[in-house]
Amino acid sequence: MSAFTSIKLFHHDSSSLKPAELYADLSKLDVTTAELSWQPYIEKKIKSLESAGTSQDDWPEHLHWDWSQLRRDTQSKLAHQWYGIKCDGKWQGLMVLETALHRARIGADKGKHLVYINYLASAPWNLAEFVEAPVYGLIGTIFVRVAIELSFNLEFKGRIGLHALTQSEGFYRDICGMTDVGPGQEYSQSKLRYFEMTKDQAEDFVREEKQ
Amino acid sequence: MAIKKQMTLNLTDAEMNVLELLCEKKELSKTALIRQAIKLYQLVDDRMENGDKLIFENIKKKEKLELKVL
Questions:
Q1: Contacts of B49 in chain A (CB under 8 A)
Q2: Does B44 reside within a domain?
Q3: What are the phi and psi torsion angles at A75 (to 5°)?
Q4: What is the CATH number of domain A4-210?
Q5: Do A77 and B26 touch (CB under 8 A)?
Q6: What are the tens digits of pLDDT across the range B34-45?
């Protein structure tokens, strides 16, 4: 992994901010370490869904994400960038961004480049769907901010887009202020809803973050 | 931030015209646009080396067109 940036996560138990590190360009070892530490929680969740008789179609999609395979697929690709957040010596979240294949679909900037959030996940112990008392918060917000920063650096003016997991739709719409464009459409056959942040929305997000 | 290296690029008038038109259309500097082109070229080339085809699909017209790169 490369040099890190100091950030702060919200520690739910103490209701305080705790120092953490944001890393870019994660190594194979980083990704494997994160995956191995998350696996027991994911396996436990899968077992509980199986015993409840929940159809696999209704399982949260991120239970199937294979981070090691994703890293192999995107290795050495200039269009893909990996980020990770570490705190307490553990990987608290991972994100993969893609910067070449997606274009804005809404507003005056339709057809212009944007940063697409391919994958974004918090460690299972930070999610209410896995544990009764999640440990850290703000991971999603920090990653969205990182995607916006990269978008500005690439001259995309802050534009970002993503297909949201069902349980995360409210976060992107209400917390991040992104536009809910709807399911699938044009570039994707996905059933997941597509969300986009325009340059104005990106500026609003950054402004509110600073306050 | 990665260390950047400088280079001189020699283009014909036609190539420069296309570059400038694309820069205007996408609201990008020439450097940013060329960076995008390199990323896309790498992705496409890797896929084709793995035996994948490059296909353009128009969902509205229900048309598919394979771009043959031989």
A1: none
A2: yes
A3: -55, 135
A4: 3.40.630.30
A5: no
A6: 999 999 999 999
